[in-house]
């Protein structure tokens, strides 16, 4: 019975974690159709993706304190209801600006599911069980970008782009019902928990003072912005410039997801022989080289669809090595403020991702160049952050050692 109950809990938590990736990726094959229906351009439609990223960035910081103040389920109910309403309102849009605003609201709703699912794993499972459950959630989150655009491509081809939002709204309703009837409240509300800005801001400032955090959180977030540049511009590049079908684009997106997921899995294996710091360094150097060559090819019109897929796969593969190690290193110094550090890193990732997606969206839709340009700039800025940040980390370690010697 216990195993059956665990299965249902993991299934519901996995569904909560999958809602965000499905919301981001499922409507990507519809960019061309959305632009035609709303009498807009694909680059303007891509701003609805940017607004979603901005909503997720803001929501990361919003829901953490709410989940501690009111328990897990009430904020989750609020987020899901907000998501459902905004999803069905997307059916009635007549203007691209309405879609951009509704996607922002939808993101604020979906963020509750992502933050709550992680918090509830800690609440509901033992220390021994948690890593396995987190691995299951990570697998769901990793597989979702492979399934969502492919399923979205077929759905849009058969029924039209608005039915993606029907699907997402119905998915959220099922998750809400499962949450109400099958998911236990895993955390007792804390009436003494303060939602005043000052203690929350103080906690974030303490996190930002840690050199290891700001060095590796910046590396993780800046390189991750290259992924958002790819996600935002890929519908235009593959369907408009290379004339790939909606379903074909979905399969390409799934294939490229394998590169990112595969390298993150290989990373888990090679950690037996190499440190996280070394992996980040070498992967970042490789990413700089690959993205620079990609940019040179784009500027000289040497690219075709296969070369473009190859260069994106190389960039995402490097990211599969960089991101998990940089995330682990940035959170390593914290025990007390781990929640604040995690929320801050998530907000930073999504904030810079939103900026990158806006940049490629505003750069037009007739050239591949903006995507490798953003990727190259991101990779080299991350490398500079690594070189400068390591000096501050070393200085802090030496200062701590001197203080320890003086104490004795």
Automatic annotation (TrEMBL):
InterPro entries listed in its UniProt record: Efflux_drug-R_Bcr/CmlA, MFS, MFS_dom, MFS_trans_sf
Q: Which residues cross the membrane?
A: 7-24, 44-63, 75-94, 100-121, 133-157, 163-181, 213-231, 251-270, 279-299, 305-322, 343-362, 368-388
- Alphabetical list of CDD domains matching this protein: MFS_MdfA_MDR_like
A GO biological-process term? xenobiotic detoxification by transmembrane export across the plasma membrane
Instruction: Determine if Transmembrane is one of this entry's keywords.
Output: yes
| Residue stretches making up the Major facilitator superfamily (MFS) profile domain | 9-397
Keyword Transmembrane in record: yes
Q: What Pfam families does the record tag this protein with?
A: MFS_1
The family line of this record is: Belongs to the major facilitator superfamily. Bcr/CmlA family.
What NCBIfam families does the database record attribute to this sequence?
Answer: efflux_Bcr_CflA
Entry protein name: MFS transporter
The record lists the organism as Pedobacter chinensis
């Amino acid at each position: 019975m216990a195993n059956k109950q665990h299965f249902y809990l993991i299934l519901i938590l996995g569904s909560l974690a999958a809602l965000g990736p499905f919301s981001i990726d499922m409507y990507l094959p519809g960019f061309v159709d959305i632009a035609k229906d709303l009498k807009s351009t694909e680059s303007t439609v891509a701003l609805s993706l940017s607004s979603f990223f901005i909503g997720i960035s803001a929501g990361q910081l919003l829901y953490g304190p709410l989940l501690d103040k009111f328990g897990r389920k009430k904020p989750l109910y609020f987020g899901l209801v907000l998501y459902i309403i905004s999803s069905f309102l997307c059916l009635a849009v007549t203007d691209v600006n309405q879609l951009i605003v509704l996607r922002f609201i939808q993101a604020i709703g979906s963020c509750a599911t992502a933050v709550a699912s992680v918090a509830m794993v800690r609440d509901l499972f033992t220390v021994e069980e948690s890593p396995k459950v987190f691995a299951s959630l990570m697998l769901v989150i990793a597989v979702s970008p492979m399934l969502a655009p492919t399923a979205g491509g077929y759905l849009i081809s058969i029924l039209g782009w608005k039915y993606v939002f029907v699907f997402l709204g119905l998915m959220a309703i099922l998750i809400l019902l499962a949450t109400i009837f099958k998911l236990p409240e895993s955390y007792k509300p804390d009436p003494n928990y303060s939602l005043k800005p000052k203690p929350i801001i103080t906690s974030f400032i303490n996190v930002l003072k840690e050199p290891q955090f700001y060095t590796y959180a910046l590396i993780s977030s800046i390189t991750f912005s290259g992924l958002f540049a790819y996600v935002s511009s890929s519908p235009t590049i593959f369907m408009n410039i290379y004339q790939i079908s909606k379903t074909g684009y979905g399969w390409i997106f799934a294939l490229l997801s394998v590169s990112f997921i595969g390298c993150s899995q290989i990373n888990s294996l090679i950690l037996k022989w190499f440190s996280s710091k070394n992996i980040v360094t070498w992967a970042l150097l490789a990413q700089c080289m690959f993205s620079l060559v990609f940019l040179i090819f784009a500027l000289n019109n040497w690219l075709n669809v296969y070369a473009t897929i190859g260069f994106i796969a190389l960039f995402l593969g490097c990211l599969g090595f960089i991101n998990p190690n940089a995330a682990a290193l940035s959170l390593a110094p914290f025990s007390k403020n781990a929640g604040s550090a995690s929320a801050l890193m998530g907000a930073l990732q999504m904030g810079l991702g939103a900026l990158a997606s806006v940049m490629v969206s505003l750069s037009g839709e007739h050239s591949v160049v903006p995507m490798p340009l953003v990727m190259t700039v991101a990779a080299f800025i991350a490398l500079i952050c690594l070189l400068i940040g390591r000096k501050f980390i070393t200085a802090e370690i030496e200062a701590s050692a001197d203080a320890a010697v003086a104490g004795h």
